[in-house]
Protein: Polyprenyl synthetase
Organism: Boudabousia marimammalium
Amino acid sequence: MASVQGGKRLRALCVHAGYLLSVEDDSQISADSAEQLALLGSATEFYQASALVHDDLVDHSDLRRGKPTTHVRASQSHLATDSAKLSDFGTASAVLVGDITYALALECATEAVREHPAGMQILRDFAQMTKRVAIGQYLDVVLDMKTVNQSLDTDRPIEVINYKTAGYSVIDPVCLGAQFANISGSRLSALWKAISSWGVAFQLRDDQLGVFSPASDSGKPAQHDLVEGKRTYLLALTLQLCSSSERKLLERLYSQPIRSTEDCLTISQLMETSGAREAVDNKIDELYQQGVERLAKLDFPNSAPLLDLSESLVYRTR
């Protein structure tokens, strides 16, 4: 399954970095705690796999990490020759595989906190994380139904990011790890607020890579967000910054059911020449620095591992 092969295990690393906020280094983690922490990290990765399988289905993605997505691979492996049956089998397989990996995530999370004094609260927060992603996925689908003229507002894609990806990609895993190290209450809330900007920056970077990174690096179909007409923050900024004639061109291109390779090249060039790409770069820098400054004020014993990880998350190249 492409959603669990070749991944960077970023969420598990976030769990680990969150735990290390309260300890000086790995040598202070007992063998039992290390095992339970690994299970908690695995839970976030299984959930990531589940979310990707379902997201690929919703977004009609053919590739994930350079390999066929679950629904595509399933439809290709079925013996039926009827195209409708093949499509139905692929869809059903993706729904069920996503559900299975979601169940594995819950199983790992439950086992990880079985003897932890804050175990029930950690599980509640894990459940809240998955609920927010589902809400964000729905908001994303709704946003994609809007016309280009309705996509000028940059607040809407940021709302989608806050629900759909910022939490479960960065903020939640870090806070789950911190909770495992017995950080709670106002201290945990302050941590959440401090690193929330990194979650948004992570997705803004992902959106940029989806447009300007070669498919060989991203592992996804070339410029898939443009082909499918995703209403991203990058697109909203482009619409705000381009000329009226360029906006009309974008309106025409996005009114089509799907965009050609030539269309995508035109759109990506407008994102560049309008200054939107540079503006997003600046926004990412601003959000990253905001998180660094806020985290420093919390004065955790060992924030260096999280700071190092945050930089690699926000400024990754693939």
In short: Residues 35 and 227 are 43 Å apart (CA to CA).
